Amino acid sequence: MANFFKENGKGLALCLAIAIPAWFLGKCFPLIGGPVIAILFGMLITIPIRDKTSLAPGIKFTSKKILQWAVILLGFGMDLGLVLQTGKQSLPIIVCTIAASLVIAFVLHKALHIPSKISTLVGVGSSICGGSAVAATAPVIDADDEEVAQAISVIFFFNVLAAIIFPALGSAIGFDTTSGEAFGIFAGTAVNDTSSVTAAASTWDSMWNLGSQTLDKAVTVKLTRTLAIIPIVLVLALLRTRSGEGNNGQKVSLRQVFPFFILYFIAASLITTIAVSLGADIAVFSPIKTLSKFFIVLAMAAIGLNTDIVKLVKTGGTPLIMGACCWVGITAVSLIMQHAMGIW
């Protein structure tokens, strides 16, 4: 333990120094969120630092291991039975929006020659659940911190647009204003990050005095989408194994890339499900879920510290186009599916 802190202590301390104020600022500005603020702080703070030799081990540990722990802890507080039961109605829409985003990302990856790891992160992050999906996917495809930062930045931009535009869009196209069901499903399937889902749904509730109807529906749909992390990450691990090449041209085995942390995520979800079925209040798991969110902020601080902001701006054009296309595609498919199913 002493050796661990000797090697990683300075980097960890710097990440914490960034993450703590970013966490509280994220509470004050939920539309932006703590993870994005932490990345930005990290990018700015790293500019004047000439030598990061003593900081590097702790920063790397935070951006890799703590990011995985964040995903594992995310499983607590997810009652799989309740999520699947209440998410049944939205499941066809979720499957179609995820498929649309992944297909769009693949086509643009080929057409615009966007690097495969960035394409994967933007496609998966846009289609499933933003930062959490990126966090789960990055270690499996061995994405570096700059690629993660770029994907998070792209997803954040369209999250903000969705939170601002979607309530007005829902009103314009005639969503039912006496119930939060239609807009809740729309927000839960077409917006990826939890902070923006809740922002859009809460705005709709406020606009039409619906209490928390829309918010409850949207969050449940969003949790159902989160479960898609499991098959997506497992498929990516298998694909990387089949391609067979690591960063140094060495063969990659399934054991090397298998996302064992996803098994812990499933185990955490099962623990919650069993506890709730035995009469426990799901609110018991709220502190663990909060810790998961803080770990994501902490990891994003480390990713910001390892990111060259100038390079990020210079190479951000085509991923932004991909993010825009995925966002428009998901929105269109969600609306079409809801209309076909008679939800609005």
Give an account of the 3D structure.
This protein is mainly α and 344 residues long. Helix content is 77%, strand content 0%. It has helices at residues 2-28, 34-46, 56-74, 80-87, 91-111, 116-127, 131-141, 145-173, 181-190, 194-208, 213-226, 229-243, 254-257, 260-277, 286-305, 309-314, 317-340. Helix 1 (2-28) packs across helix 3.
Compile the SSE list and pairings.
Layout: H1 2-28, H2 34-46, H3 56-74, H4 80-87, H5 91-111, H6 116-127, H7 131-141, H8 145-173, H9 181-190, H10 194-208, H11 213-226, H12 229-243, H13 254-257, H14 260-277, H15 286-305, H16 309-314, H17 317-340
Helix pairs in contact: 1-2, 1-3, 1-15, 2-15, 3-7, 3-14, 3-15, 4-11, 5-6, 5-17, 6-7, 6-8, 6-17, 7-8, 7-12, 8-10, 8-15, 8-17, 9-10, 9-11, 9-17, 10-11
Tell me the major beta sheet: none
- End-to-end CA span: 58 Å
Q: What do the pLDDT scores average to?
A: 87
Query: Could you state the order of secondary-structure elements as H and E?
Result: HHHHHHHHHHHHHHHHH
Helix content: over 70%
Chain oligomer state: single chain
The backbone outline, from C-alpha atoms, is globular
* Percent in strands: under 5%
DSSP helix count? 17
Which class of secondary structure composition applies to the elements? mainly alpha
Rg value: 20 Å
Entry keywords:
mainly alpha; 344 residues; single chain
What's the gist of this structure?
With 344 residues, the protein is an all-alpha fold.
